[in-house]
Amino acid sequence: MTHAVTRRAAMLGAAATSGSLLLAGGNAGAQQKPAELRVGITTFLSGAASVFGVPAKQAAEMLFEEINKAGGIGGVPVKAFFVDEAPGTDHLVGEYRRLVQNEGVHIIFASISSGSCLACTPLSDEMRKTTLLWDCGTQRIFEEGPHPYAFRTQGYGTPEVLAPLLYLLKHKPDFKTLAVINQDYAWGRDSWEMWKAGMDALKPGVRVVAEMFPRFGATDYSTEVTRLLAARPDVVLSTSWGGDLVTLVRQATERKLFDRSTFVLPVAEASLQTLGRNMASGHIIGARGDHWNNHPKPKDPARLAKFVDSYRAKFNEYPIYPCHHMAQAISAMQAGFAKAIAAKGGAWPNDQELANAFRGLTFDTPTSSITLREDGQGLEDQIVGMSTFTDRFPFAVPKDMVIFPAAMVSTPVGMKSVEWLKTLKPDILAQMAAPIAG
Amino acid sequence: MAEWLTDNGLLLGLALLDGLAYAALVFMVAVGLNMVFGVLRIVNVAHGSLFAIGAYTAASVGIFFASLGLPAWASYVALLLAAALVGGILGPLIERLILRRIYGQEEVLQLLVTFALFMILEDVQKLIWGVQPIMQDTPMKFLGTVEVPFGEDTIPFTAYQLFVLPGVAVATLAGLAWFLRRTLTGRVIVAVTTDKEAAMAMGIDAAKVTLLTFTFGAALAALGGALASPTTSLVPGIGAQTIVLSFAVVATAGLGQIEGAAISALMIGLGRSIAVYLAPEFEVVVPYIIMVAVLLVRPQGLFGVLETRRV
């Protein structure tokens, strides 16, 4: 069940809810079970990042429909209010306030962009509204200060960079040169800083032959590809995603760059379906988590198959990782409300009680279990593998998959990622599990 | 200097090849924008949408042709057909229904209207083609790659990038120059560009000329998009990226200047490519540094002519 928010509806909502807010008197006292559980969801509905945002919205709509058919959460039907992140953080901050004050949402899911999450988490503190960070990856959120009402229901940048680095060090330990080509924005720069810190600690002396940060949303990489062909690095790292990655891979494939260098693509999963046979075999690919459609040993195979099949039946494509991240946030929401309601003897929780329930919460996903540790960060395993083609999928999937337990590749609570990565010792490679064929 | 050139000469040679292809694509879009401004005196922000729709249409027609089992060379027909379709249908529609109402109005209003049109067309693209990247690279694959010597090594380039893109741009420039200077219709367009009132006093139907010019400009933008489509993945937002760069080219050249657009597209294309090799951190800003440097010295652009303000 979804609802498109119009300006008029917002004004009417403002009038209606301003009265109810006064009556509610904040969080104190018993909460009446609401007529509907209102969920504000910020995602990209336009612009280049809508390649993630729209599939995630579709996944949310599909799952909310299933939840409502099954009786809702705590007997309350769920209603989603979607907000577009694309206009920028100033706009989003206003929308966050509107969702809380005018629409009276009970919980917020924010966001895809790290910038959006960095803008929303202080608001969650200020407005005391439980906010599930459902997709953004910046390590800064919980490393720069506590956010008692914010919880990230998936992994984040550090494990998503470290796991492919460890895989590379194990798979191709003799590489001597590396080039990086990342998008010119926070994730592209931050992920390179983390990779470099980890690489310098674990394998000092690797020569970086090119550092390129083309414009976000670039439509042509031919010059960068030429430079990489000329430089002949042993390894090319790119944490790019979306249309940028698709274009880069296509141009690199066409010009045989994949034959000359080993690529490491930590965010490849979301683009593989689009790339089809244009992706080369034998390169290192990640999925920002463990939710590959060909997960070698999912915790709940039937649930994974149901999610993938339902999504495919409804939208004629395989779910990509933002769909899985959205599903994880929804699972966390269900588990969090169930825990909060149980703790209150069946009564509806207020904002504080709801936030308390998320601290330390463990919830199941189709592939594993995720625990929200004390700082609010979710511990999600990472799976990295080598691109290959099978009869089962018309696009590349990983083989020789290594499951990296979240605790192994996540920065300990209280430390900053780059500083922690600098302290890594090569013996961490010994902790790696053996690859699973897939 | 000589030593530096010895060390980097080969790289600069590669940058030249990349820059030519990039400049060719930018020129195709910028020249249409420039022509439209010359006659209509409107800075058309929606020009970027025509580029994007041209690209999407080319991909769709190419995919349709492939589904019919047509040979790979037919994908080139798809590129031209897409440009003709978008230019021939959307061009007149936009000019008749929207632009005609804002001729001679405040520039701010013209910008706002064309920007609104741009936003609407962005949404139309999403409604029709969705948000997931679309690829149709048959034209590029059809011609294969060419190995370019690089010292003792070779660097593969796509023949499409090396020959087709620059070739079409040069043909377009030559064709436009011939059309505008050697044909009656072209001379009529030049007359309206130079002095609309005088042209009308001589009996030229300015409304017909504006319609023709805009349709032609729209087709050029769509052709630029169609030519770009085999090399890139089509996603929401590609129109915005293109229009910003095209504005830089047009501003550098001087509004209304066609050969100037070609030269400034070359400057910007080559500048960007060289930056990727020598100072990649400046790649994004190089086109705008060139633009600002030119405008500081010549506010009317490299080839622009200062106009006496009419009172």
Strand content of chain A: 15-25%
Largest sheet of chain B: 2 strands, antiparallel
Query: What's the total helix number of chain A?
Result: 16
* Total strands of chain B: 2
Distance between the termini of chain A: 37 Å
Low-pLDDT segments of chain B: none
The end-to-end span of chain B amounts to 53 Å
* Number of alpha- plus pi-helical segments of chain B: 12
Estimated structural class of chain A: alpha/beta
Helix-strand makeup class of chain B: mainly alpha
Mean pLDDT of chain B: 89
Shape estimate of chain B: globular
Can you put this structure into words, describing what you see?
The complex is a heterodimer of chains A (438) and B (311). Chain A is an alpha/beta fold and 438 residues long. Chain A has 2 domains: 2-155 and 301-372, Response regulator (Rossmann fold), CATH 3.40.50.2300; 158-287 and 381-431, 3-Layer(aba) Sandwich (Rossmann fold), CATH 3.40.50. Helix content of chain A is 44%, strand content 16%. Chain A contains 16 helices and 16 strands. In chain A, the strands form 3 sheets. A 7-stranded mixed sheet of chain A has the order 8-7-9-10-11-15-16. Chain A has a 6-stranded parallel sheet with strand order 1-3-2-4-5-6, with helices on both faces. A 3-stranded antiparallel sheet of chain A has the order 12-13-14, with helices on one face. In chain A, helix 3 (89-101) packs parallel to helix 4 (114-127), helix 6 crosses helix 7 (186-202) and helix 13 crosses helix 14 (351-358). The model of chain A is unreliable at 1-28 (pLDDT under 50). A two-stranded antiparallel sheet of chain B has the order 1-2. The radius of gyration of chain B is 20 Å and the shape is globular. In chain B, strand 1 (145-150) and strand 2 form a beta hairpin. Chain B starts with a helix and ends in a 14-residue tail after the last helix. Chain B is mainly α and 311 residues long. Chain B is built from 12 helices and 2 strands, in the order αααααββααααααα. Chain B has helices spanning 2-40, 47-67, 74-97, 107-129, 138-143, 159-182, 184-194, 196-201, 206-228, 238-253, 258-278, 286-297, and strands spanning 145-150, 153-158. Chain B has one domain: ABC transporter involved in vitamin B12 uptake, BtuC, CATH 1.10.3470. Chains A and B meet through helix 2, strand 8, helix 8, helix 9 and helix 11 of A and helix 1, helix 4, strand 2, helix 10 and helix 11 of B. Chain B: Belongs to the binding-protein-dependent transport system permease family. LivHM subfamily. Chain B: Keywords: Amino-acid transport, Cell membrane, Membrane, Transmembrane, Transmembrane helix, Transport. Chain B: It is a multi-pass membrane protein. Chain B: InterPro entries: ABC_transp_permease (IPR001851), BCAA_transport_permease (IPR052157). Chain B: One of its GO terms (molecular function) is transmembrane transporter activity.
